[in-house]
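Thread amino acids onto this structure.
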């Protein structure tokens, strides 16, 4: 997916604020999951919630106000109760790698306790695992 950097995304120097990359990762994951035909809103109604249990971000270069960034998301690992994504963000105009990272999400129930992924979700994600 692509994201244009607006003034609100930057610090006082016009550089993307570091924490915003985690939001961009989240958006890319949401699009990825939706593209696989998985309805997160429906799963939430059924009592399944997905929480980030671990995230890593490696900053390679700054991005600036006005840049258009390309964000990739892919599956690195799927288990019975969790899935881990890898992410890369590059500047569209020159292909420069800006950020890369990972995020592990755990499936939890209404009480916040880890639980197995819904079977259909586990199957669809395992088909896409890198």
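Threaded sequence (130 positions):
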């Amino acid at each position: 997916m692509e994201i244009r950097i607006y003034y609100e995304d930057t610090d006082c120097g016009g550089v993307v604020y570091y924490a915003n990359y985690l939001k961009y990762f989240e958006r890319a994951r949401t699009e990825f999951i939706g593209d696989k035909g998985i309805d997160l809103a429906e799963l939430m109604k059924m009592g399944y919630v997905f929480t980030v249990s671990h995230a890593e971000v490696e900053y390679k270069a700054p991005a600036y106000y006005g840049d258009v960034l390309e964000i990739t998301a892919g599956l690195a690992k799927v288990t019975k109760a969790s899935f881990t994504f890898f992410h890369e963000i590059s500047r569209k105009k020159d292909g420069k790698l800006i950020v890369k990272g990972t995020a592990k999400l755990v499936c939890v129930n209404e009480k916040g306790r880890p639980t197995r992924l819904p079977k259909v979700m586990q199957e669809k994600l395992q088909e896409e695992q890198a």
